[in-house]
Design brief:
Elements (H helix, E strand, L loop, with lengths): L4 E2 L21 E3 L13 E6 L1 H7 L19 E3 L4 E7 L8 E8 L11 E5 L10 E7 L4 E7 L7 E11 L4 E8 L4 E4 L14 H7 L4 E8 L2 E8 L7 H10 L11 H11 L9 E3 L18 H10 L3 E4 L1 H15 L3 E11 L6 E6 L13 E13 L11 E6 L5 E2 L2 E2 L1 E5 H6 L8 H9 L1 E7 L5 E7 L5 E6 L21 E3 L1 H4 L6 H12 L17 E5 L11 E9 L5 E12 L5 E14 L4 E8 L1 H4 L8 E10 L5 E9 L6 E3 L3 E3 L3 E9 L9 E7 L3 E8 L7 E9 L4 E10 L6 E10 L2
Parallel strand pairs: 4-12, 15-16, 18-24, 36-42
Antiparallel strand pairs: 1-3, 2-11, 3-5, 5-9, 6-7, 6-10, 8-9, 10-11, 10-12, 13-14, 17-19, 17-26, 19-20, 20-23, 21-22, 24-25, 26-27, 28-29, 29-32, 30-31, 30-33, 33-34, 35-37, 37-40, 38-39, 38-41, 41-42
């Protein structure tokens, strides 16, 4: 039966919140009836769980809670719909003709049979479909019984308390003692069980979407994508208890925790702290006093440890941090999940399913009317599950959900789950929040001119700018991505573009039909029936910027083209601004007035050159910039406009480690990068961690000279075998978010 972990009577030890059902010193409850009433009724004195073998079979052996650790309890963690074993020790031989055993499982604050939070199971050979069951596998002369217990596929997930009552079959007289197990059994979702709502048919995908504790979250811009290494750390202590306690304290009934749709939706509200005391507080201001900058986090574990300890929201997070923590919450419960990044992500605030920009008659932006925005990138999650709550069963599979607080849904800041297939088809009324997610990936951008008497005229529509390169971390079973194409926006071999899962190909009939269908359900139905300004014979285009490193000088260009055979006079304003990833304007770097005379069918290009010393004081953490031009054509009153966003490239953090190490043997890690700036880096710190290698650690560093090399070496010791990943992040006052990671093979000693 493998290694057996048992509980005997022992001195009372310090309890851990949410785990001890009763103190160890009293595993039996006494009622003391008359002695003649309990004659010949045997008692259960001890329960042993086959933790090593069952946790391996249930794929839960990676959880720290299941490991033998000095001074720490060892717990059984199982997945629903799959049997596990327990060994009972009794005070006398068990007689099947005379005695009856009743296993009592309870969960939640008020266990009730009517709500499914209290279950009583008697031994039976019958295998009742989708119900709790227990049968006797073996009886030994040492008065021990081996039982097999089966939970149903729709079982409530969480911490279950076990009690065992014995009865005498002749009159069903209960025993005066009830065995009460001192530690709970953890029951999780089971994506390997065909009858579980979260079942995923591919073991290779489950290896990534449930069992992988590290990965990358993609960031940047649509033309320059990079992966930020992230440690999900779902198997580390106290992550599982943190998530279950979070559900407990926020009035989420235990009776509903068998439904992954409800669990997923609840967690999208609880990971942010906007409505309740959730895990993370969002901050996009650039001022992170009183907390840590979002760029400095390397994983979820440190965030969840702090929250579990203080029970206060952790400061601070942005979309990728929310997504990383939400991925951890889902994977720790057994729900397949992936982090998804949408580049040029629309934020539709008025349910119009369009992004609307307004200008006056001279072409000046009316920013007070522009509540919508387009984020450089936005990160959310997909989870995998069936959707039996929907009529259309084709809507099972990947579901989009988001914990970043943007807009309220049913009175709380939460979003999803919504089927990707419904989003792709423009079926935006499918629960939950389909209109908002559709707009993020496929809204059209509409430009309006507002006259002095508030008359509105549609100047133009962009149909292919929103929802670019939806990206996720590619599972190993799918091989590497070919990024050799010079037009590829990302060079990471594990980058996967899943845009086709969210939308039809841009410009195709199916994509246009989905947009039209979604628009008819929005608050501005019929905007496509309004005509566009007729005269459009001057083209203005911001040319694509070449990849530019942070620290280099910048050059941006605008091309004017007269498409008519007559002369045209163009005047306007050309600007370079820094922006937050949310599309919110930060600082103006430079603004210039332009005046261009174009002959018949003539082209002309203008250049703007900006030195590092000019743009650097106005650079924000993401190094995002936007070139914009708005101009008027004197002869036709045409308004011509264009913009282009780009980011400056930062260096990578390099990690040098041995190819292979052994459990328990120290090894050296060297971290380095070249400072690209012509200024000294000050207030430097290094964040580094690795599940099974090193708990999250912050290490203060000395200053790094202008265009000098940073080097730091440290010692680590692996505690777990397998493929492990070291993740590091360097921050300073002058440059932040320098990232790196490295895989290492750890062998048994």
């Amino acid at each position: 039966m493998g290694n057996i972990f048992s509980f005997h009577r022992a001195p009372e030890i310090e309890s851990r919140e949410g785990r001890f059902i009763q103190p160890r010193s009293a595993p039996l409850e006494h009622t003391d009836p008359p002695e003649e009433d309990v004659k010949d009724i045997f008692q259960v004195t001890e329960v042993q769980f086959n933790i090593d073998d069952d946790c391996k079979a249930h794929r839960t052996d990676k959880y720290s809670l299941t490991e033998e650790r000095p001074g720490q309890d060892q717990f059984l963690i199982v997945r629903r719909g799959q049997p596990f074993q327990m060994r009972l020790t009794c005070d006398q031989p068990y007689d099947q003709q005379t005695h009856e055993l009743k296993l009592i499982f309870e969960t939640g604050s008020n266990p009730l049979s009517t709500s499914g939070t209290k279950v009583e199971v008697i031994l039976s050979e019958a295998d009742q479909h989708s119900q709790w069951g227990a049968k006797l596998l073996e009886q030994k002369e040492d008065m021990s019984l081996t039982l097999e217990v089966k939970t149903p596929p729709p079982c409530i997930i969480g911490r279950w308390n076990l009690k065992i009552r014995t009865l005498k079959k002749a009159n069903m007289q209960p025993s005066h003692k009830i065995y009460s197990h001192p530690l709970p059994i953890y029951v999780l979702f089971n994506p390997w069980c065909k009858e579980d709502q979260v079942y995923l048919h591919d073991d290779g995908l489950l290896e990534e979407y449930v069992l992988s504790d590290t990965g990358k979250i993609f960031r940047g811009s649509k033309k320059s994508i990079y992966g930020k290494p992230w440690s999900f750390g779902q198997f580390e202590d106290p992550v599982l208890d943190c998530v279950l306690d979070l559900l407990d304290k926020n009035n989420f009934p235990a009776s509903t925790r068998g439904d992954p749709v409800k669990v997923v939706r609840k967690l999208t509200a609880l990971v942010n702290s906007s409505d309740r005391s959730g895990i993370l507080t969002g901050n996009w201001s650039g001022n992170y006093e009183g907390g840590k900058p979002p760029t400095s986090w390397t994983g979820s574990q440190a965030i969840m440890e702090e929250y579990y300890k203080t029970k206060l929201p952790v400061k601070y997070g942005q979309c990728w941090v929310f997504s990383g923590v939400l991925t951890t919450c889902y994977r720790v419960l057994g729900i397949p999940s992936r982090s998804v990044t949408n580049f040029s992500s629309a934020h539709d605030t008025d349910v119009s399913v369009s992004i609307d920009y307004h200008f006056d008659e001279e072409g000046n932006p009316l920013e007070h009317m522009d509540s919508d925005s387009i984020w450089n990138f936005h990160v959310w999650n997909d989870v995998w599950m069936a959707r039996p709550d929907l009529k259309d069963q084709e809507y099972g599979g990947w579901q989009a959900c988001d914990s970043t607080p943007q807009e309220q849904s049913d009175g709380q800041y939460r979003c999803g789950p919504c089927p990707l297939m419904a989003i792709k088809n423009g079926d935006i009324n499918v629960p939950y929040d389909g209109h908002f997610i559709f707009a993020e990936v496929n809204a059209d951008v509409v430009f309006w001119q507002i006259s002095e008497n508030d008359q509105k005229k549609k100047m133009g529509v962009r149909t292919q700018s929103v929802g670019q390169h939806l990206s996720t971390y590619k599972p190993k079973c799918r091989g590497e991505t070919d990024t050799s194409d010079i037009f590829s926006p990302c060079t990471d071999k594990r980058w996967e573009d899943i845009t086709s899962e969210y939308k039809h190909k841009e410009g195709w009939g199916a994509e246009r039909a989905a947009v039209m269908m979604a628009n008819m359900s929005g608050t501005r139905a019929g905007i496509y029936n309004q005509p566009v300004e007729a005269s459009q014979d001057v083209s203005v285009k911001v040319l694509n910027n070449e990849q530019c490193n942070y620290g280099d000088d910048l050059v941006v260009e605008v091309e004017f083209e007269n498409l008519s055979k007559e002369e045209r006079t163009v005047s306007g304003t050309w600007s370079l601004r820094s922006f937050y990833s949310t599309g919110v304007y930060a600082y103006q770097v430079r603004s210039e007035r332009l005046h261009v005379n174009l002959g018949s069918e003539q082209k002309e290009t203008k250049k703007m050159q900006i030195k590092f010393e000019e743009y650097n004081p106005n650079t924000i953490e993401g190094c995002f910039f936007k070139t914009s031009i708005v101009c008027m054509v004197q002869e036709t009153n045409q308004t011509a406009m264009d913009d282009d966003d780009f980011r400056l490239i930062k260096p990578d953090l390099h990690l040098k480690v041995p190819k292979e190490v052994k459990v328990g043997s120290p090894f050296k890690v060297i971290v380095s990068f070249n400072n690209p700036l012509p200024v000294t880096l000050t207030q430097c710190s290094l964040e580094i961690e690795g599940p099974g290698l090193l708990k999250p650690r912050t290490i203060k560093q000395s200053s790094v000279g202008a265009q000098q090399t940073f080097n730091y070496d440290m010692e680590m010791t692996a505690s777990k075998p397998g493929t492990r990943t070291i993740i590091a992040n360097f921050d300073s006052k002058e440059i932040v978010d320098i990232n790196g990671s490295h895989e290492i093979e750890v062998k048994e000693n």
